Amino acid sequence: MAEPELVLKKLLEQRWPNSEHFFERAARDLTEPPGIGFRALFASVPRRLGQAAELSLEAAPELRAARPHCTLTDYVRLWLLSHALPRLASDQQPGWVLQLFEAGEMGEQVSILRVLPLLPDSARFVETGVQACRTNARDVFEAIVCENPFLVDHFPELNFNQAVMKAIFMEVSVRRIEQLERRITPELSRMAAGYASERRAAGRPVPEDAEYLANYGA
Amino acid sequence: MLFDPHIHMTSRTTDDYQAMADAGIRAIVEPAFWLGQPRTHLGSFEDYFLALLGWERFRAAQFGIRHLCTMGLNPKEANNSRLADGVMELLRLYVEKDGVVAVGEIGYDDVTPAEEKYFAAQIELAKDAGLPILIHTPHRDKKRGTERTLALVKESGIAPELTLIDHNNEETIASVLDSGCWAGHSIYPNTKMDEPRMVTIVQQYGGERILINSAADWGVSDPLKVPKTAQAMKVAGIDAETVDTICWKNPVNFFAQSGRFDVKEFGLDLSVDQRELFQGNSVLRGQSPRTDDK
To answer: Most CB contacts within 10 A, which of A36, A62, B134, B220?
Structure first.
């Protein structure tokens, strides 16, 4: 078992003392390939955790991409994903994660997006991240765009720029995008300037984030 | 008489239909689009297309409103490579159905290669079916997206008079009108375009090839924006002929190019008989049915 997985297991054992039933059920539902039973278990995590579901945990340093807002629910789902993926051929894994994301309700989608950078060789899952940005649900959008290294590390330029512009539209501060400055390009500045111009022509206030991006490096 | 040429009634209530009818709306076009969240199965597209052609048309008629629709793969879901080709295959069938007056909404959203591929393919579909096209322009990077739209339309060879480019604003309308295409404007409570700005645009550009719509859907939107904007134009002193051109004649003439309805008959009041059923279903919930004298 890889080191991050051991750390994760230890973390769950410490924070979720009555988890035997869950792991018993997981042993049954982690079939090859994972089916409806697995999806049901994945969906039911917060209910099984009860009051601990929303507990934010200090992430272990071994889980480098984990962030302080990740909850116990997210970590349990990460554990499930980590154990399900090896039961699929590697070329099927990205498509399977995307399907799990699409078939998930918002809480499941949020968990998948938050732990995406913690999955092995996470760049493979970029399609899930990109599709997530097409959501209108703020929680889901924030899960991939805000305080998540996946965006800056793996999004192609076109999709990265669209995600940043969508953040402005959704009034999600672009300052919440990790290492944003690493990816600000003249093209992104041009898009932000275009939006600022459109807002002025409509007689509407220009969002501060649009000004910031438009003038970055100027 | 008023025409809302872009409204997503599957998301609206019978109260909306009643208010629209009371405000003078007699015809609508409901473009096929996305449902607020992505579909995960091809069959969901087909059932949606069938609902536009069936139940929704029946519901509208129950309030004296003529319901037409457009068929298309919307730009957002064009990015779903697992479903897009299947939807294109379905569209070959559904563009041939009665009451389908254009291919749409098509166009760009994120301006990805996949969006461009299906945008171009659907223009070809429209050309084959002899239908006009209804084009959505993107919210983000709008000006560039509209320029690319105009370039693609030109390259495709479809006639500009068969092309309606929607969701315009102050920065896009001049280039759209210059291209010979029709220019739609979505009047929204908070975004896109509002009534006073629309009045200013009409004062500057007149009424030729200009349309307005509510684009009302499942989000914050107002199905009465066409009557409200018509009123705002009148109050601002825009002549009644221009208002009628924008709010009735232009959408009728644009969609009549489909050859799928009779313009003369179209202006006649639709007789309402709420005793009618659709596949055994009624819009009524115990009320007395409204019936017009026939």
So the answer is: B134
